[in-house]
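Technical note accompanying the year-one report. For the benefit of new consortium partners, we illustrate the data format agreed upon in the data management plan: each record pairs a sequence with a structure-token string. No post-processing was applied to the example shown here.
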Amino acid sequence: MKFTPFLVAAGLLLGQGVRSAPVDAPDALEESASPKPPALPGSFEAMDAKYKAYVKSELKKRTILNPCNQLTVHTRREWGALSKSDRKNYINAVKCLAKKPAKSDKKIVPGARSRFDDFVASHIQLAYEIHFNGNLFAWHRTFLWEYEQALRKECGYSGAHPYWDWTKYYVDPASSPVFDGSDSSLGSNGEYFPHGATVLEAFGLQLRLPGGTGGGPVYKGPFANFTVNLGLTPPDPEPSEVVALSIPTNATVPVENRLLTVVAKSALDYNPRPLTRDINLGWSNQTKKSDVEFLLKCQNVDCLEKTADGWATTNPQQPRLHAAGHFVIGGLANDPFASPGDPAFYLHHAMFDRVFSIWQAQDPSKRTYQVGGTKTPLNNPPSANVTLDDILEFKAAGPNYTMRDTLSAINGKFCYIYE
């Protein structure tokens, strides 16, 4: 027997359980009728199952007086699990956002040409406040939420934000539904040209990335010929090395106050160029289920943040899931500041947030509102610890939030779960 939305709502209002729920409700998370062998303790599957059981139980307790309940929650699904029609609706919404006028202050972000650019600009402006520190997961969770709300409210997107499950496609990301170049993908790899390493310099670190399998502009699919407006252009590539410049320190200074002697263009100036990718199989090998399990072993959020970016230990075998997701895509995604200029950034960070959500659900009473770490990248220079009362900025991408308001995906302003 199917319950109508009215009957479901009545059950929620009265605080009674119902046996059936809308497609987006937690009941949709239940396993199929055919039994599966139990997941091994500590496995990604077991931790994901615990997460799903937790959110399902929490939402079933709620009446419609709670703004996040079984009727209102949105379910984020893996890109490959969406119908082609749903994928195309998402793609069209992203393209719509890239045509909407920017809201960024023109004196500070003269290069922004669209609402899509507003999100890139926000990430550039705040880069040193949101990476390699205690704001990593919370800020990017909220950034993605605001992006999803812009797609919905400004471009008519009706779905929840999808994610890219790296673990499904680590052997050959280019053949995944995300990057296969079909009309329901986010476009292809970049056009291949022989090239060597990419050297990144940012946050006081230098990292050499081996050349990938593309390197040039995206040549096929919905985001072929997609124009990136913000961020710096690397120098002309050499046969052995492509150097990606770091952001100039004056990038957030208003135009009229900038020193005219600065040679490099600011990352916030108008710099139109094609979207590039360089899918890297070496880095995709750090996005396996075992790598996610390695991260999920962390017992506190400080460990989680440090391990995700590879600075918790000197172990060279430690996977670096946050960085790896970027470097798998390569090209623009290698730029630690302007990487949101690639639409695939948001699917990567949805998966990153999914991992955070699963980690929190392993011990929700202790982990949901747990904070850790300091406010500067790599704690250099030494800075104060992050607190629940800290204010997180988002510039033109969205309003300010307190740290406390960002830490639960089913409370406060947020209302979503992962399938």
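Partners are asked to follow this layout when depositing records. Confidence is low (pLDDT under 50) at residues 1-33, 245-264.
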